[in-house]
Amino acid sequence: MPPRPQPVLDYHQGTKHSFEGYAPGPGYLDWASQPNPFRRYAGARLIPLQQVAPVDEPRYDAIFTPGQFPHATPVNLHAISQLFFDSLALSAWKSTGTSRWALRVNASSGNLHPTEAYLVCGPVDGLCERPMIAHYAAKQHALELRAEFAPGRWSELCAGFPPGTCFVGLASIHWREAWKYGQRAYRYCMHDAGHALCALGIAAAGLGWHTRLLDDIGTEELACLLGTSQAHDAEPEEPDMLIACLPTPPESLSGPPPGLLRSFASLDWQGTPNTLSPSHVDWGMAAIAAQVRKPHGPPGYAAFAGAPRPPVPPARRVSLRRIIRQRRSAVAMDAETRMPAGTFYRLLERTLAVPGRVPFSTLPWQPHLHLVLMVHRVDGVPPGLYLLLRNPAQAGALEQALTQADPWRPPPGCPAALPLYGLLERDTRNAARAIACYQDIASDGCFSLAMLAEFTGPLQRHGAWMYPRLFWEAGMLGQLLYLEAEAAGVRSTGIGCYFDDPLHEVLGLAGHAFQDLYHFTVGGPLEDARLSTLPAYG
Ligand SMILES: Cc1cc2nc3c(=O)[nH]c(=O)nc-3n(C[C@H](O)[C@H](O)[C@H](O)COP(=O)(O)O)c2cc1C
């Protein structure tokens, strides 16, 4: 029997923002307890990584086109350096007056960065002579050696994987987000984990590697492998996922056996994690995390499959790594930039999950999220509400559920293969702004969107542990939209602050079969001239 989803449904319902009030949270910022955004392990040996300046090749479009992928780069110090530099490293420092804060390649709600990463690898040329587990220290762009282990154990760990495989584990420090956002913070941590997962998948693709989420691993077993189960007095880290980085696309993948993973708990772990805040408020993060831990074993959902789709026509001849490292959130939109229809359709095509196509080939499950678009300024596409159906199997259920929609019809000029449907033709700018907690960015762009997830179905079929996975998928869509906007010469912003049920009401959605999990806006940015930008390192 899958674990009961009711406590998770209660958490989700209890952390909705609405016109009547916001989800329980601090309501003000207690600067005295502001968490340190950088976890360090005092006493662990620091292994510096290389900073790799972006070059023209590979082109951004190439990584999405099977056959144009770069050849797999051998796993060595340079490649591992590049993997982290292009996914989780600092991208810039911003400053105004006496304040200074770091931005990273991966976006994060409130720039609080709850996601921590660990490399699990065998001997790597120039990096390590023995297999190891190391924590990624973003501020230093370096690895902190947490534990070494015997070559025999590495052979067991990567049995069944092609030579040249390494693994990256992600974990979340929920306190970083809860400090600012209270109870709703768990959702943001899982969005952020999805952003990091997508960033890793795209960085790996730039190296010619393939990434796969190993979803038969249990949360407790993952904690043993990553070392987060080791006792300490600092803020806890909850393990989220293990990602295999592979030089060749895998046939099928199952993670290492549970006994082997548990045996990592008895390694000689080095380093003591730093305490991030002098005081804490309990916003129930441990309780919700305990509800969604996954037991070890096959996940039980149907494997991700689907028909191949025609390649997306190239956007601009832009460098993958420049796009990755220049990605930023728009803090305001200009309320005038218009997007050509071709750019809009290409961007939407990229968000579809297609076997073998980056980044959603990383996920082993069928897509659960659809995009509800509020089109404001797209040439040739009438303003209104549209649905991008990311999983055709849910067409019937959605057609029944969206009771406020007009009969679905493709917009004029829409490519025949793109599953985009007009739901309502009207000006949605006011509604978009109001539903996004009255944020102007939602109405002042070319379009904004809500990510609508098939919700109770996956939780009831598989277990409460599907809850974070729905947010990972949302976060992946978000990170991809950031890059797509950047490649199209505009900008975007994730919107975690939105009124859940009012969006459902606009669509005529009742019950919990589908739920709105994340918002996004794409448009022409306005720069904040008060801020200075400084280089990420040095
Ligand atoms: C899950 C998530 C939710 C976010 N929600 C909002 C939001 O509601 N409003 C907003 O202006 N920015 C929002 N952002 C943007 C972040 O504030 C931004 O990513 C962060 O400040 C780091 O800046 P950068 O994206 O330029 O690196 C969100 C980002 C993420 C990843």
Any chance you could write out the topology, listing elements then pairs?
Blueprint: H1 6-14, E1 41-42, E2 46-48, H2 77-85, E3 90-96, E4 99-104, E5 115-121, E6 132-137, E7 142-148, H3 151-157, E8 166-172, H4 174-181, H5 185-206, E9 210-213, H6 219-226, E10 238-246, H7 258-263, E11 272-273, H8 285-291, H9 320-326, E12 332-333, H10 341-350, E13 369-375, E14 384-388, H11 395-401, E15 420-424, H12 429-435, E16 447-454, H13 456-462, H14 466-487, E17 491-495, H15 500-507, E18 514-523, E19 525-526, E20 532-534
Antiparallel strand pairs: 1-11, 2-7, 3-4, 3-20, 5-6, 5-8, 6-7, 8-10, 9-10, 12-19, 13-14, 13-16, 14-15, 16-18, 17-18
Helix pairs in contact: 2-5, 4-5, 5-14
Structural class: alpha+beta
Low-confidence residue ranges: none
Q: Please, how many helices?
A: 15
Strand content: 15-25%
How many angstroms separate the termini?
54 Å
The ligands found in this model are: flavin mononucleotide
Shape: globular
> What is the spatial order of strands in the main beta sheet?
2-7-6-5-8-10-9
Q: Work out the radius of gyration.
A: 22 Å
Largest sheet: 7 strands, antiparallel
Overall pLDDT: 96
Overall strand count: 20
Helical residue percent? 25-40%
